[in-house]
Amino acid sequence: MIGIFDSGLGGLTVTKEILKQTPEYKIIYFGDTARLPYGTKQPDLIKSWSENNLDWLSQNGAEVLVIACHTASSWAYDYLREKIEKPLFEMVSPSVEIALNKTRSGRVGVIGTPGTIKSDIYSRKFASSPRIKLFQQACPLFVPMIEEGWINHLATREVAKEYLKPLIEAKIDTLILGCTHYPLLGDLIKDIIGPSVEIIDPAEALVLKIKDFFDKNSAIQNKIKKGNNHAFHFSAQPYNLELISRLCLDREIQGKIVKND
Ligand code: DGL
């Protein structure tokens, strides 16, 4: 099974992309809804919660692990990669690689939760490419608005205009959507920021990495359990499960409540 963890339901956007491109593998998903949101929490908590969640997925049969949450990828991946013995994927590096290939002017923007932006992980990842000028913007209101289903809402458009203003002024030509939820605002963001800016969905970048890993590691690939009876688990009853799973995954899911610590 491919084990996917997120702070909540947003990781279903990543799940959707994994299922789209590698539909044969069974997914086991864990959303840490009891501790949501991660985007405003302190790094030491995010590290230990992420470890709990990955351990839970491992103990429940995942052969390959994905940290779908960008905030957890930003703060916890470096800490966890030594500790976790199974193949472990995160959301930041794959999108940075794509951005490096796409940008012509070198002016790259990143939007994310306050935690992701504060981690400064993107500056560190781009540091070896001096031609890149990075512009970062935290967008704390996006997640709650999306979780209300306000995708095409006037209020979301106004908020998005405000958040994107500094990036438009900075004349970026590439924008990384550095949060599980933001691909749902892809069309709105494109509309505001203009067609000349290349928008990068990190889930697409992640799946390229996973497929490349499978190509190079067929022994591991062959071991992964196949099937379409995917299993979704949460540490507390998720808010707006039907609506958000329809938005993120194009279908409603049944979630099972489990204890992960
Ligand atoms: N999943 C989080 C992320 O991608 C967003 C929601 C949260 O703050 O927990 O950063």
Description:
The chain is an alpha/beta fold. Helix content is 46%, strand content 16%. Strands 4-3-1-2-9-10 form a six-stranded parallel beta sheet, sandwiched between helices. The structure holds D-glutamic acid.
- How many helices? The count is 12
How much helix is in the residues?
Answer: 40-55%
Q: Extract low-pLDDT stretches.
A: none
Computed Rg: 17 Å
Structural class: alpha/beta
Question: Numbering strands along the chain, what is their spatial order in the largest sheet?
Answer: 4-3-1-2-9-10
Task: List all distinct small molecules, including ions and cofactors, that are bound in this structure.
Answer: D-glutamic acid
Shape: globular
Question: Using DSSP, what is the number of strands?
Answer: 10
Largest sheet: 6 strands, parallel
Mean pLDDT equals: 97
Beta-strand level of the residues, as a percent range?
Answer: 15-25%
Order of helices and strands: EHEHEHEHEHHEHHEHEHHEHE
The termini sit apart by 21 Å
